[in-house]
Write a structure and sequence with these properties.
Elements lengths: L2 H26 L2 E3 L8 E3 L6 E3 L8 E3 L1 H15 L1
Antiparallel strand pairs: 1-4, 2-3
Helix pairs in contact: 1-2
């Protein structure tokens, strides 16, 4: 195997492996930490020591991954179609 073919196969295989890894993550762990509240479900006030519940994640600290959202949409279309 020449260095050129090794580099070419790595360039082709790396995106495929990363895509398969993301698909597995969407299947095994559909939720990720919400970035705005850092997974706590609470957002501190700008001034003072208080906090409020995060309205974007409904105070759960979790958000559905974009890939899982697309997966659910496709499955819903298939079921209804």
């Amino acid at each position: 195997m020449t260095p050129d073919t090794l580099i070419a196969s790595a360039v082709i295989a790396l995106p495929i492996l990363l895509t398969l890894r993301y698909i597995y993550l969407c299947y095994a762990r559909p939720f990720r930490k919400h970035t705005r509240c850092k997974g706590t479900g609470r957002i501190p006030y700008l001034f003072g020591r208080g906090w409020r519940f995060c309205p974007r994640c409904n105070a759960t600290g979790l958000r559905l991954r974009a890939g899982r959202r697309a997966w659910n949409h496709i499955r819903r279309l298939q079921r209804e179609g």
